[in-house]
Amino acid sequence: MTDLGLVASSCGGLDTRFTAELAAPAAALGWRLAITLTPTAAHWLASTGGLDGLAATTDLPVRSASRLPGQPRPHPDPRVFLFAPASANSVAKLALGVADNQALTLLGDVLGTPGITIVVAYQVLDTRAHHPAWPRHLDTLAEAGVRLHRLDPRRSWSAVLDRLPPPSRPVPEG
Ligand SMILES: Cc1cc2nc3c(=O)[nH]c(=O)nc-3n(C[C@H](O)[C@H](O)[C@H](O)COP(=O)(O)O)c2cc1C
């Protein structure tokens, strides 16, 4: 199986849609999921009882905290990443190189690396476009090779899975 680094932040619908429309369908497509949540996303799923259902989509631990020094790394090193849903907050931090949680540390470490595929599917209000830094954040990520996709709250999030390479085909090294 091919590993997929699946990262999520705290967007509306996380509790009802993330497992049903992203994690479970991705696993059904043949991806082995290495799931990392922002602390707020983990808090939301813990409070709604959604963590067990999410954990059932993978044999790997669902992460939201960094390991302690000396502890083994709990996840493999995927070559394909899907950051969905991505909040405006986390998109901005990723573009700026901020790594103040495990999810952003993971993505920041691989952003721009040759041979790594990153799809960022963000869900933001239309008014976000008025923030003067927002277009620059998207440009920064696009220039680093990120495949950007805006989630439409009226449609299934599963559509973004079409932006990933096929899980059965290994991504070339380099
Ligand atoms: C009910 C609710 C829904 C939210 N939905 C979104 C959303 O769809 N997109 C977004 O950018 N922020 C949304 N937010 C705001 C983020 O949760 C907030 O900016 C948070 O600090 C993001 O943290 P994170 O990126 O570390 O997960 C929502 C907040 C709440 C309370």
TrEMBL record:
InterPro entries: Flavin_trans-like, Flavoprotein
Domain Flavoprotein: residue ranges: 11-103
Top-rank taxon: Bacteria
Name of the protein in its database record: Flavoprotein
Organism: Amycolatopsis ultiminotia
